[in-house]
User: Which sequence fits this backbone?
């Protein structure tokens, strides 16, 4: 759930906003304790079409509440955020997870070009970017995903002060890179989508049909 804040969405003002937010509270969005947030994370992880992944990239990880769930399914996770305050909390949250690497990245310019991933998770991050930057983000996803790669986007639907792009447009731009849609879960509050290079369903992958 996103709270109100300053109306401007320029990168520097957004950095100040998030640094102030995380400096004031270690879990400003209630991601650790709210049932809404815990349920949403469980739905996201359960929607992954494979049991195991090699390398995951999770930009916009915040305080890394989702990261342990991804780490349980992945050999390695690169979790990144542009807020130094959020990353300090993320380090504490993932200290016992040697497969997790943290980095300070601003999207889309700090995308780890040259690194390959078979899972990219964009949870509650795309709508903070204007459409042109979401397009650049989508291109990075297309360039970085392996032949068996999976892309996940999960985003809040309601209006809020820091929104720079409608969730529907974010998902349309990500879907336009040519991956096969596997999962669409939409509620009044959020929409979760999963795309993959392999268009087979989970049952087809397991030879059930």
Assistant:
């Amino acid at each position: 759930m996103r709270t109100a804040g300053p109306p401007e969405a320029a990168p520097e003002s957004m950095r100040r906003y998030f640094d102030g937010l995380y400096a004031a509270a270690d879990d400003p969005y209630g991601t650790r304790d709210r049932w809404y947030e815990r349920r949403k994370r469980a739905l996201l992880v359960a929607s992954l079409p494979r049991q195991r992944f090699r390398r995951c990239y999770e930009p916009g990880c915040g305080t890394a509440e989702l990261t342990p769930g991804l780490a349980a399914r992945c050999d390695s996770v690169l979790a990144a955020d542009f807020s130094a305050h959020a990353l300090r909390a993320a380090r504490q949250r993932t200290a016992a997870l040697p497969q997790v690497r943290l980095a300070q990245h601003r999207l889309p310019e700090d995308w780890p070009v040259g690194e390959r991933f078979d899972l990219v998770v964009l949870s509650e991050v795309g709508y903070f970017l204007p459409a042109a930057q979401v397009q650049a983000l989508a291109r990075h996803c297309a360039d970085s995903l392996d032949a068996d790669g999976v892309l996940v986007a999960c985003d809040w639907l309601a209006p809020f002060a820091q929104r720079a792009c409608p969730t529907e447009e974010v998902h349309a731009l990500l879907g336009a890179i040519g991956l096969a849609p596997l999962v669409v879960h939409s509620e009044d509050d959020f929409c979760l989508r999963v795309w993959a290079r392999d268009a087979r369903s989970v049952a087809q992958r397991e030879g059930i049909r």
User: Anything to note?
Assistant: The chain is about 35% helix and 25% strand. The chain has one domain: 11-205. Residues 1-9 have pLDDT under 50 and may be disordered.
